[in-house]
Amino acid sequence: MNTSSIKTAAMLAIGDELLSGRTKDKNIGYLADLMTVAGIDLKEVRIVADEEDAIVEALNALRSRYDYVFTSGGIGPTHDDITADAVAKAFGVACIHDPEAMELLAAMYARRGIEFTEARQRMARMPEGSRHIPNPVSTAPGFIIGNVHVMAGVPQVFQAMISHVVGLLPTGAQVITRSITCPFGEGDIGTMLAAIQKAHPETSIGSYPHFDGTRFSTELLVRSRDLQAVSLAAEAVEAMVAELAAEKERVVMRDQGTGELA
Amino acid sequence: MNTSSIKTAAMLAIGDELLSGRTKDKNIGYLADLMTVAGIDLKEVRIVADEEDAIVEALNALRSRYDYVFTSGGIGPTHDDITADAVAKAFGVACIHDPEAMELLAAMYARRGIEFTEARQRMARMPEGSRHIPNPVSTAPGFIIGNVHVMAGVPQVFQAMISHVVGLLPTGAQVITRSITCPFGEGDIGTMLAAIQKAHPETSIGSYPHFDGTRFSTELLVRSRDLQAVSLAAEAVEAMVAELAAEKERVVMRDQGTGELA
What we know:
Number of domains of chain A: 2
Radius of gyration of chain A: 25 Å
CATH topology of the largest domain in chain A: Molybdenum Cofactor Biosythetic Enzyme, Chain A
Number of helices of chain A: 9
Order of helices and strands of chain A: EHHEHEHEHHEEEEHEHEEH
Largest interface: A-B, 72 and 72 residues
Largest sheet of chain A: 6 strands, mixed
Helix content of chain A: 40-55%
CATH architecture of the largest domain in chain A: 3-Layer(aba) Sandwich
Distance between the termini of chain A: 56 Å
Strand content of chain A: 15-25%
Mean pLDDT of chain A: 92
Oligomer: homodimer
CATH class of the largest domain in chain A: Alpha Beta
Strand order of the largest sheet of chain A: 2-1-3-8-7-6
Number of strands of chain A: 11
């Protein structure tokens, strides 16, 4: 497996409302699902406020470290929408009223008989040299500069934009995931699972506890870009779960003291 | 208003499952709500994978910058639970089987007649010198070292732990928020709202667009720790919305060409 061709990504979600709890983010999970399907490794997510310094610093850290950066939020027409300016500052270029975006927006508002105000013109702002990300929902485009993809925070618009963007990217080999439901808690399986992980280093085995209010169970995920490796590790995990179940059964039988065993 | 006493915080959510999309995080929004109620400013959130280097780096960046750091995830008994080790490494101290945690867990498993396996003992690991965060759900404690509060990722356990932790912290003056529902999109209000924000610099006025599938409306939030400042700015915003509504009404009347006006 050629791992050098695997692309990495980060997301930067921008908005005071995400940090105050007013808005519960829906874009991170959506992007994460999409990256998994596209075979791109999402490595990090950050959420920052609508503050220029915070955006610039986070963006520069992420864009130098990962192949792709995706941002959400802060590209609307109001005073707290400062993402375009912050991205321009991070790249050290001017933030302009993009002529093509101005035309698109002017035409759309003219059709609807709505004044193309100064505030609405803010939605055409982007760093000089950016390419557009189309917005089929409400016209105002997102933009791409370098490896940074700047999109709206409103989930319907974000989803439309990211779907377009993912279509532009060279996708990698998809990570194959096998899920094994395990009725036992992590304490029951931890030692054996660690041994299985050690024996199958080319896979990543994750253990995800679930608490139903009374007891813990676990979902076990075996992940790799190598199908055969996933199959072998998943078989070992399934055998472990079966063995544990059989053992628990023997303990119950013994404790109940059935006639045959007594 | 004495702003020097206002405490800042960051959250570090740890887990491959958050980045693959398998798990949609519920702890960030919960923490954000709690911080707002406690009057603590949540300034940044990061999500990283179960990778030691990524955890150490993010933790050191956040703990040096903010008053409090809260982490979720990676303190269970399986091999992919490496948060305790990573936190110890970030602080440059040993990661030990905490004697008090070992006692708590041993007693709990003894009561339930369950073997206290090596995997289960992993849940007693924490950086030397940590204090416990009680876990009323499943016993295994979280821990506090320096300004870092390390909690479980399972939402029920995270919520119990963070509620306890918030009770320990000196809380600040709460941010007062006034919400104004605005039936107009951001393009209608952007210029006027920017002027209001400029006239009320001691408040933070946020504009949150909502798209119902056909048209945009907006929720406007005025926030400050100063009640009078919030009231004055909110009045200005309400007056703006009322004026816009009246203007739209006049336009409709004119366009309909009523007898009186014709």
